[in-house]
Amino acid sequence: MWTTVLPALIAAVAALGGVTTGALVEPLKLRAARHVRIRQEHAERCARLVEAATAARCGVMRLNIAHRRAVLGGEQVSEEEVLALETAYWTARTELRQLAGLIDLFGPDELAQQAYAVRDADRHFRAKQWITESSGTLDRNDLPPPVRQAADDMETQIRRFTALARESTC
């Protein structure tokens, strides 16, 4: 009798233990998967903000060069070229603004503050986009000192954001 009952009893206890363990472990697995997904989305938002900020910085530099080419170099800068540069800049700036808002929404607060510092650096840099050299000559490889300083300030803010993002996503 024990030879038939004992294996059935052992199988029943093992099945019950497996079901109980599964019921206890499954919510933990789901919570861990959710945490990983949220962390990955956060990292992707941070990466997109860095890309948008870099594109906006590049856009202002290109607009400044086109402006100096027209004013100092006497070159014809087509309206289509300027429109394409402005469209690229405003697209990047819009994405930068949206991502800063999303990072502010989901936190952490320190990272959100740095995202807004990047946005402020972009605004400051954009205010300098029409500056030309005081010497009156065109040097395409070098930006006027106030424009260069604003570009460097924005790059510094992007690097600070990147360092904070790395800490919060790793």
Provide structural commentary.
- By secondary structure, the protein is mostly helical.
- The protein has one domain.
- The protein has 4 helices and no strands.
- The radius of gyration is 28 Å and the shape is rod-shaped.
Which descriptors apply to this entry?
mainly alpha; single chain; 83% helix
| Beta-strand fraction estimate | under 5%
Report the strand count.
0
Secondary-structure element order, N to C: HHHH
Q: Classify the secondary structure makeup into a structural class.
A: mainly alpha
Average residue pLDDT: 86
The count of helical stretches stands at 4
Q: Let me know the largest β-sheet.
A: none
Oligomer: single chain
Low-confidence stretches: none
Work out the helicity level: over 70%
User: How big is the Rg?
Assistant: 28 Å
Could you give the distance between the termini? 59 Å
| Overall structural domain count | 1
Shape: rod-shaped
Protein name: DUF4142 domain-containing protein
Organism: Kutzneria viridogrisea
